[in-house]
Specification:
This protein has 17 helices and 35 strands. By secondary structure, the protein is of the alpha/beta class. The strands form 9 sheets. Strands 1, 2, 3, 4, 5, 6 and 7 form a 7-stranded mixed beta sheet that branches. Strand 27 (566-572) and strand 28 (575-580) form a beta hairpin. Helix 12 packs parallel to helix 15 (584-602).
Amino acid sequence: MKRFDTIVMVDWSGGNDTGPSPRKDAIWAGVNRDGLAQEPVYLRNRTVAEEWLDALLTSEQAAGRRVLAGFDFPFGYPAGFAAALTGSCDPLVLWDWFEDRIQDTPASNNRFDLAGEINQRLGNGKGPFWFNGLRRDVESLARNLDAYTNPFAQKRQSETLAKGAFTCWQMGGAGAVGGQIFTGLPVLARLRRKFDVAVWPFQPLDKAISFVEIWPSLTVGSAPENKIKDAWQVSEVSKQVAAMPHAALIEILDVVSPEEGWIFGLGFEDKLTAPPLRNDCFALPPGVHWTPVAEALQRLRDRLVPVAGIETVGLQQAMGRILARDVTAKRANPPLPNTAVDGYGFAGGRDAGTVDLPLSSGRAAAGDAPGILPADHAIRVLTGAALPQGVDTVVLQEDVVVADGRVRFAGPVRQGSNTRKAGEDVAQGQTILEAKRRIASADLALLAATGAAQIDVRKQLRVGVLSTGDELVEAGDSAEDGQIYDANRPMLLAMVAQLGHIPVDLGRAPDDRGKLRARLDAASAQVDAIITSGGASAGDEDHVSALLSEAGAMELWRIAIKPGRPLALGMWHGKPVFGVPGNPVAAMVCTLVFAGPAMGLLAGADWVAPQGFDVPAAFTKRKKAGRREYLRARVRDGQAEVFASEGSGRISGLSWAEGLVELAEPAGEVSPGDLVRFIPFGSFGI
């Protein structure tokens, strides 16, 4: 199969015209041509969308470009439906059947009426379709699942494997795809007749234009706050597919499902969500010599993408892992209305005065199935018990008198007192944790309480740490004159582990370019990213920089930072390399400030900027203009102390410190009592 030149991903909608202004719940298309992403395209209705697709395919075909177009609705139904409706199990015959019968305009369509007609024909008016979004009733189309029966399977095989995927029988409602199928298949049927189209997985993709079924939520999480979710998702999916190696794409397309269809990428999520980084992802614009810290951080944030794959783990293995997809509550918390105290439950509030109620037999305790309370009675309830039917208010046991089978207390009592509503903490179906979040212990309680036994997380990033230099020896070995013990590698390996990644010790490499090349070659096959210390500048023995330059994938960022300055960033066989200075103080600061958040992004997390706090200074400092400075510091008696020496070789200052004082680029003077920004090491994640 030949490569695709243009990737088009479309988020469809079965609703009416959404107007001229871009908005959510509309049709959006993401286009990536020759590896270059285009701005998402807003398509206000299906007529406009079909015309746009027609024009795009015409243009791409004329230019001789191969197109892979994805649409976010099922291409088929559960086995047996096509044959029952059309007499043929060929899903493409079903496409034409819908195209013959759907009447669609920007303002309305007949999808609900057609669903009712199919229910009459195949399911005695009780299924397989359900949900009527019209104000008027539709014969044989239920508004909910009451008295609903389905002669076919509830889901296709692919939907049973794709967690959160909706059944194709639901014709409307949040997340439903039934209406999209009814309105989308006719459009694809017409485009298929006009162009030379192959439809996956029903046909081999050996034509100029190919259609595949997608589900953006399979590999793309929540959109940034300032982005429309549908627009952002199709743009991201198009980028993922465009960045995928051709061999991986062929593997993903090797699916046999001739009747039901299949979701593109299902079972191969790690291949879609781990696109290779580009060799120029660290390139700086021409003419930049000294890069401000803020600009360097923004460029890393803009250029890097997650490379870690996805796996499913149980809750006991989830601590510290990064969520790959949003998690929704399978069950409300609390699942049923319950009592917050020990006391007596009854219906309704009570006005001022004495209240006297007969006491029902039995009681309601935590874990009991809720019973039914007779009207105008009270019942004994214990903390956490589900409220029996007929109970919505509880009075504390300390406030009542129980005698002769009756309960007496003084009003007023507000209706609902001392009770918890079902779902008042978390509603069923509510998003409880968003993708890119690192799981904390409290998150495990929330996941368990709402019914999650397993979650999809990113595989842990494997980060190799390599020290370079002839002067280095292992701690404990005999050191000759001129040699020093390797302090960086133990420190950086520990920092990688504290940041939630898997540290891989790559040892020490001498100042020999050939041996360093071999070491990097071997490392690139076993890790996702590499941190080197030493050899990151432009001197005769700075072999890390030289090798990355020879590979055509190296940028020496001279960053306006103290301690530090040179930061070698590059790619080695597709793996990012962070070359930090050999000086331990500078190595630690550059790793915390630059490599730490960058590795988090590679691992699938959000970019995390460390939280700083303004505290009074307990020191005096005159700062020159030009560089952002980080001073080893700690807080004592509410004031920031800094280490006595700013020398980059003073390793004892790292052990003494509990964080860094950050001083901005402008010149300035700090006197005792002035506010300075203190960043605890914990804010960096270590």
